[in-house]
Amino acid sequence: MAETGRRDGRGCEEFRSIFMQTGLLKHAKGSSYLELGATKVMVGVFGPRQSDRKLGFSDSGRLQCEVRFASFAGGSATQTHQSAAERNMSAALTQALAPSVLLDRLPKTVVDVYAMVLESGGGELAACITAASAALASAGLELLDLAPACQVVRVDGQLLLDPTLAEADQANGSVVLAALPATNEVTLMSVTGTWSA
């Protein structure tokens, strides 16, 4: 291990290398590909489309998010329904992004956001949120702000920003935070594990 205690030599408050590109999916209205260290995520945004009549009239639009893990990234090749972890990540993604999108300007419509984790290397939820926010901007939707996200884990009493998969597996606790920098509004704070002073 390096002096910092992290196997990759980063300091406790350092991010992994980041690469992002938008506009790669030609059939999506907006898209984003993000590499955060070994974690790789692709997001496509489709719509807005007319809302299902069964849901009734709504003065504002809806954001519908779905997260999936590719079979080679820990998902199941034969699974047609989302796993519990994928459903939880989908709900968290919706919660993190909805405040950033001006849905009141899209009455009776739905915007679909599909995130695929291509490689699981730690910090998947934060990567999905950040990539999806960029994909929404790429789609030309009116946004209040981008909603970047990051994860912090607690390993042996030490706080580590942007954990690898190995660090996340060793963690006693984890926090994923998404915010709108322009307004300082926290849109998601997901806390798991044990935290004590």
From TrEMBL:
Residues 14-141, 149-193 form the Exoribonuclease phosphorolytic domain. The keyword RNA-binding applies. Keywords: Cytoplasm, Exosome, Nucleus, RNA-binding, rRNA processing. Transmembrane segments: none annotated. Its main location: cytoplasm. It holds the Pfam family RNase_PH_C. One of its GO terms (biological process) is rRNA processing. GO terms for molecular function: RNA binding. GO terms for cellular component: cytoplasmic exosome (RNase complex); nuclear exosome (RNase complex); nucleolus. It is found in: Cytoplasm; Nucleus. Belongs to the RNase PH family. This is RNase_PH domain-containing protein. It comes from Haematococcus lacustris.
